[in-house]
Amino acid sequence: MTDDGASSQLEDLEKENRVQKLARTEGKLQSIEAFQAQNTNLLRVLMADLDVERAESERLLLNILPAPIAERLKADSGVIADRFDSVSVLFSDIVGFTPLAESLSPEEMVEWLNDVYSAFDVLVQEHGVEKIRTIGDGYMAAAGVPFEREDHARALVILALDMKAHSLPPIHGHRADFRIGISSGSVVGGVIGTYKFQYDIWGDTVNTAPAWSPMGCPGEYKSRQQRTNSFRAILIALPGTPSTSREKEQ
Asked: Cis ω on the peptide bond leading into residue 146 (within 30° of 0)?
């Protein structure tokens, strides 16, 4: 073989090697592009799942805490506490609930209470006030927290009237009624808990509303407004009951 022939074969071999290397490089690039595409699609799926989870977490958080409090909690993990000088608190309890509950199965009792307080939840939302908590057969709501509002007492009185207008579903032929106590004054509001957050309020105003409720007759509500050295207690009877009012210095 001549030198020219050997040189030509060498060139052909090098050319073939370059073609093979180029093909392998292109194959690797295609594999990388396919991998990137798969990762991009996977990332899109993961981001979509994350958005769904975030929305669900947000929904659950808003079911537990007022929206502005939830935003503060997400921004700052420190203590959340505020003093409100002018707030009204409503407390409602069901008349004769204890003997009624003893006659019901656990499923019947919970289902009936859920029907009652789910309707109250709707009314609370419609009136723009804040549900605080349920305690047994008691239901507590407040106006003036976490946002201050001048018409807090009026808002809860109107809510009480609408709650009274709501017909409680009869159970075992028994038609239950409820009493409502409303108290106005100052409270402290804040978030407590580590694993189960709760927005709650504290103060004499909070304690007074449940205390007023048992003092009324079924189908009526009582209200108390704090003043510097005195308070005025007003008993407003609803349709079908006599109307009275009294003042007491304290």
From this structure: yes
